[in-house]
Hints:
heterodimer; A: alpha+beta; Glutaredoxin; five-stranded mixed β-sheet; two-stranded antiparallel sheet; 12 helices; 8% strand; elongated; B: alpha/beta; Aspartate Aminotransferase, domain 1; Aspartate Aminotransferase, domain 2; 2 domains; seven-stranded mixed β-sheet; 14 helices; globular
Amino acid sequence: MICIIALIVFSILGIFSATHRVLAKEALDCVFRRVTLRPCNTGFNEKIKSQLVARLLNRSVFAARIFNKYFEVFSWAFLILMVASTFWVVKGGYNYYLYGSCNGLNQSGFCAFDPKGENNKVTEINVQCPEVEKKEENVTLDNVDLSSFPTKNIGSKNTVVLIGCYECDYTRKAYPDIQKLVKEQKTNYTFAHYPAKETTNYLSEIGYCVYKEYGERFWQFNDYLFTVDKVAIYGKDYMERILDNFEFDVNKINQCLNNSETVDAVEYQLEQLQKTHLYGTPTVFINGKAFVGPKPYRVYRTEIKKFIIF
Amino acid sequence: MLNYEKIKNDFPLLSKQINDKKIIYFDSSCMSLKPRQVIEAMNEYYFEFPACAGRSSHRLGELVTKKIKGARQAVARFINADEQEIVFTRNTTEGINLLANSLDLRNGDLVLTTDKEHNSNLIPWQVLIKKKGIRHEIVKSNDDSVFNFEKYKELVRGVKLVSMVHTSNLDGATIPAKEIIKIAHENGALVFLDAAQSAPHKKIDVRDLDVDFMAFSGHKMLGPTGTGVFYGKYNLLEKLEPFMVGGDTVEYSTYTDHKMLQSPEKFEAGLQDYAGIIGLGEAIKYLEAIGFDNIREQELKLNRYITEEISKFPKIKIIGPSDSALRSGIISFYIDGTDMHQTTLILDEMSNVMIRSGQHCVHSWFNDRKIKNSARVSLYFYNTMDEAKIFIETFNKIIKIL
């Protein structure tokens, strides 16, 4: 059994070292003989076994004796462990490619490809006494009314919903990829501002009013809010100048903001967003499937294209 | 008295290290190390006079011819033979095949060997059984692995050729060659000695032994690989029909006929390994300078120590006579039911101790006794007591896990 393990290990090491390439070849010969039901008479097994026993013997006679006596058992155990770990590595790689996390969609936990967990980080939101537990699988668009949120490309086959906040770093990180996705794939796109941070709460109402009063021009304004330095949107004081720069009628916007209907509408929007049971921003829904945290672009694209590269 | 500083200086490998540990080479029965002098003599040929011997009359050709003659004289002196009785071969195996294919053996002729023959002195006769219908008998050793003289006396009657290993590579035991030859001659048999393991370790006088044919290898006695010597009494060599002929074996040829040269030329067909032969001559000079008394003394001392130490473990079985003095520089041992390959590999891995394991080309002996294999320590004069101690120290650890 040791020759199978050796073949895999030495094949990988052989990519970098000629010495290990020779060993990999020996191991291959040994494996070939074993699978063709012939004894491995190359001495490879003995060589590997002896090298391991010799190293152990320099440290502990007892350990060397046990290892030597039960070598075949250890070999099987190592093989099973290797097969299992290979399976998990492949599965991890597959998950990482598809979902940006080795552990599956929206699953946190260590991932060698994303050791800092950047693809799952969110700006947490504080919902007092949430109706359901904060869990990935509970995040849903079921029974959520998104009709009042800014929407474009209506009638497209695929739907993307971005729930984020203007001030949040992770939403800002995901935002360009979502725009690219919407542009390239021409998807139905809905944006919803969730005020995860108090300093920019007021932007929900402003966004609502801009969309209500100026329709498609909202999107340019939205792009600006996500790309401008965060300091520029921390307070209402700057906003009039920004609105003016976009040649929006500030008075008109203010009238809208002062309208009680606006307050009700924004409250209604917030209620709808809370119905998604989201626990952080950004949360992106692609055709109803939730992606929590800023995923790599390929993750979003793969969900739309529905094909797997490897 | 051996000068180890000089010896260490002469053998480059003895100063080398692997993983910061010196190499301990205990496999000289298979292949001896080569002193610098041998390597330099061979290099000199390639650098200074890389020409043909015995053919070209230019100065370089003459020089090579002279060097080859010098090597042949050195070999002749080494075994107390005449120059014309020395035939250069590639190795002992080729020497035995030369004899087997050149001697006039016919249907029913009997060849007698021991039970510890190297395949090289077994297979050629088995082939002739099929080819010519000769017969082959074996003199089985006594239980203590010593040559069974009584059995030999019974079997030698009517034998055409007694072909025996002088010193066995299996256990290092040496047969009483002189007495064996005397009795063989009394019974009208010719005698061939396989001296591959004896020539490097003891003084052989072919005149004193009165042996008819003998072969040995250069690579086991400090010489280069691919060199060997076949000795035959001149009158017998003249009667042998060479089995390999061609360039440099004939005086002249026509489209229909040729005239063979005399011995040894008629046996040395084609271009020879001149560099190797020159190296072999140099190896013999080196051995003579060291002296066989010194060689034997060192081998016995080390063999005694290693034998005593490994004999402390009851499960270890040493092949051959229990008296280390009767086993030259060889200690071949095994443990029932244990594959000794692992032992040798671990010795190498742990302490750079290089010994051999397997059936040592004496498969017949192992198969007859149903012994899987053995580990073999084979010593030479360049080995030291310090090395033997490292071997024992490492072996003492390994034995605990076997």
